[in-house]
């Protein structure tokens, strides 16, 4: 028989508060880097979507053997073709994030996949903490994504 011995089970309120304080400090340290990552992801996602949109338009021009227009309408890039004498909209590219700006221009893809003019499209969120992206499109129709500081030509 043991008298006066008690075994403790569980945690005290002080131990719980110390653990919660440590978690709160770690969350405050991690939050700024997470916000920066989210901003960069918005720029990269928009750039990848724009590049895919352009490549789809180029493939449609070659497949249909007709010119495809990439027209700027209300800050959207609209893919149009002429079918049976009427201009038809095939697809529309809209920037999903209000914080991201894209300087779109009117272009026409020939049925050979060539572009009527060289294009240098900047995708930016006007934040120095993130890296802006540039969509480069040569006259031949070849395209790639690069850093905003890189030269396309």
UniProtKB/TrEMBL annotation:
Keyword entries, A-Z: Cell inner membrane, Cell membrane, Membrane, Methylation, Transmembrane, Transmembrane helix
GO biological process: protein secretion by the type II secretion system
PROSITE patterns: PROKAR_NTER_METHYL
The UniProt record lists the keyword Cytoplasm: no
One Pfam family linked to the record: N_methyl
Record localization: Cell inner membrane
Membrane topology qualifier: Single-pass membrane protein
Transmembrane stretches, start-end: 12-35
A single GO cellular-component term on record: type II protein secretion system complex
The keyword Transmembrane helix appears for this protein: yes
Domain (General secretion pathway GspH): residue spans on this chain: 46-121
Family: Belongs to the GSP H family.
Protein name as annotated: Type II secretion system protein H
Gene expressing this chain: gspH
């Amino acid at each position: 028989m043991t008298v006066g011995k008690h075994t403790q089970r569980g945690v005290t309120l002080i131990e719980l508060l110390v653990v919660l304080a440590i978690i709160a400090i770690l969350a405050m340290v991690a939050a700024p880097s997470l916000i920066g990552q989210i901003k960069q992801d918005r720029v990269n996602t928009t750039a990848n979507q724009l590049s895919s949109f352009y490549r789809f338009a180029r493939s449609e021009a070659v497949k249909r053997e007709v010119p495809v227009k990439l027209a700027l309408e209300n800050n959207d890039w609209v893919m149009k073709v002429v079918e049976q004498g009427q201009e038809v909209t095939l697809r529309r590219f809209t920037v999903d994030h209000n914080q991201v700006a894209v300087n779109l221009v009117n272009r026409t893809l020939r049925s050979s996949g060539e572009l009527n003019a060289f294009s240098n499209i900047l995708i930016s969120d006007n934040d120095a903490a993130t890296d802006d992206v540039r969509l480069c499109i040569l006259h031949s129709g070849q395209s790639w994504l690069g850093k905003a500081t890189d030269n396309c030509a």
